[in-house]
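Quick check before the chapter quiz. The format below is the same one you will see on the exam, so make sure you can read both the input and the output lines.
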Amino acid sequence: MAAALAGAPAKKAGPSPWPPRLALAAALAPAAWLGARAVLGDLGANPVEEVLNALGLYAITFLLASLACTPAQRFLGQAWALRVRKTLGLAAFFWALAHAGFYVVIDQGLDLGALLEDVFKHRFVFFGMAALVLLVPLALTSTKKMEQRLGFRRWKRLHRLAYAAGALACAHFYLRFKLPEVAPLGAAALLAVLLAARLVNPAARKRTQQPRQSKVA
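Here is the expected output.
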């Protein structure tokens, strides 16, 4: 039996299922955490504001995490990062939608007049809503079927809107507070690093291709 096993061709190990599972668990974990805090009465003196801030923090955290996947694969060689990018991006959209929905239904009481006034009166509200609007087409075209329907190039160009959504989300996060805080500034700095990594990589690729082309010539 051992000989038979030794002579049998080795099966190629497929990609580990754990990264997508862990990404999904991470996407759902904030709901359990926030629910537990609500049950334990640990939402502070202003629970509406606490929940609203928490939902927004979850949204921008997952959005930045999804944007970090491509640099992680390109510069660190972490192939699993691309396998969790869609899950993290959809988590960002879900939490952004929950953040906006909680604001509209609970904070504003479905008062559309007050909502519109708030949107055009406060820049941070306008930027937050604009970020959510940009995330909608990204969520709707996140499937392989939609990628094939649009064509990879058009799909890729469309999904670059994630960086614009990230910039608007960071502006929303920063302007939400009257005084500068570490978290909003840190989010903006991280987005700048990720965008720089996105812009630097094509130039680096051209430099590596030039010697090869000269050798062929």
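If your answer matched, good. Residues 1-6, 211-217 have pLDDT under 50 and may be disordered.
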